[in-house]
Amino acid sequence: MEDKEIVRLFYQRDEEALSCAAEKYNGYLLQIARSVLGNEEDSRECVNDALLKAWNSIPPHRPENLSAFLGKLARRTAIDRYREETSQKRSCSRTELAISELQECIPDRDSLEEHIRLQTLSEAINRFLAEERPQARQMFLCRYFYNLSIKEIGARMGVSQSQVKSQLYRLRRKLKTYREQEELL
Fold this sequence. Notes:
This protein is mostly helical and 185 residues long. Helices cover 76% and strands 0% of the residues. The protein is built from nine helices and no strands.
């Protein structure tokens, strides 16, 4: 079923929208949640929660790209679940490592003012990535959106792990400079 048809079903409050979205995007959403959580059961719950969030937010939202919309919901849900779990444990994992790599480029989020600043920063990162080569952009997204390991990125893109590390390091440096030029401190 086409995405526009699924969105139309959401707008009509037809429960078939959930089953169609789950059928079409379950594997994609599960991969996103699994990359953050590393746990199959929690990942499945996050996918279900993301679909429920889609049900509750369509309408009023009308996503242009349903897969990106659902992916974003699944990722946010998984990150929230991850934060919940690790707030008690405080163990260093792949997600914490990826977030810590970006820490000097992106400020902490504490207030409404900070939320607005993050929205502006998100738009600046999108502009920054739009100017990068496709391979660099893909590496950045694999690492910092899909939370893939350096090894997984190298295998996926057919390059060595050291090339991935170097490229990501250069991208983070360029992003920091870009952020400073845009006066997004």
